[in-house]
Description:
The chain is mainly alpha-helical. The protein has helices at about 5-40, 45-70, 75-95, 105-130, 140-145, 155-170, 180-195, 215-220, 245-255, 260-275, 280-295, 300-325, 330-345, 360-370; strands spanning about 210, 225-230, 235.
Amino acid sequence: MLPGPCRREYGQRQPHLAHMTRTYITFLLLSLLGLILFLSGMVPTSWVESLHAQTFFPVYRFLLSTPLSALPFSLTELLIVLLTLGFLASLARAAFGRVNPDSGGRRAAWKLLGLRTLLLVVVLMDIYLLGFGWLYQRAPLAERLDLPPATGLASTFEEQALLNATQARQTRVPLPDDTTMADLSTRAVIALNAILPLLATAPLPAARLKGAWPKGLLLRFSVSGVFSPFTQECHMDPALPPLYLPYVAVHELAHLAGFAPEDEASFVAWLACTNSPDPWFRYSGHVGAFRRFLGQAPARLRSQLRETAGPGVRDDRLGVERKLKKLRNPDLSRMAWRTYDKILRSQGVTHGVKSYDLMTSLILSWQARKGAGREGTASPETPKTR
Length: 386
């Protein structure tokens, strides 16, 4: 039997543990409110646009992107390592650490760890919504820019696809043997900022592309770039072949600019690259769109598109595919894209990962408005909302 003072000491810890548990539960319930509002769709689109996309998100982005752009490494990757090590240490403490029998013993330790873990997950999801997720609730870009509906432009698909194939052939240039992430980042930011006024979007704050480490890791999952909503950092796999580097770089930066859906980010990448004075960027932009047009074209048109693009574009694309095939892990790729498909659908993207292909619809709508002489009529101060 323990002496009296020791019994009092252990007895005093139990209310402390109960107080901690109540505190965690309170924070958990408050954190769940953000998820409930997001999933219920109760917040009007106009509020998302005015309160979040045009007010909170630019400030949040500036406060993170500006200082982190000075770091030569990825804070996101460092946080992943620290969180993993912290979680493993907490598991070891719950499994093998000293416990207080008067506070519930080992079982209470596991319950507290589970509650802390659940709270951490919910808080991270709230940060994700603030840093990115709520942007999915904006009105579609085509609606904000008052573009013609793509449903009425299906007949122009073949014409635009052939035009894109021609442009890919005409803009083909020798690809650089080597480039630094800093140089690519600078050129990509310049290209993107040049067209953002046309899209009713303010210029980016200080931004810097980060090379994912280790080199080639993302490509094993068939992923070329990743945007972190938690730190507002854009990442690319440095092993990506030069043909797609500019297009993917601007795509990731487009997420930082506030274009969450993948089709919108891809469209923005096409628009920025193909309007850039940089020959490498123009070629990469046209080839990036060519891939999407080719994937959606019927068999008859596909052969015509390849012929129109010419042997040079074909050889460049085949060289990329051979290199990526050596890096790609089929099992990891399937797992990654199935998971991402579910994530996109949970954000309200009904097409899932197939939404990447919808960038061609935005190209058709944009070109139709351009043909009607209305290019650049959108105002950055007054974006259209539902």
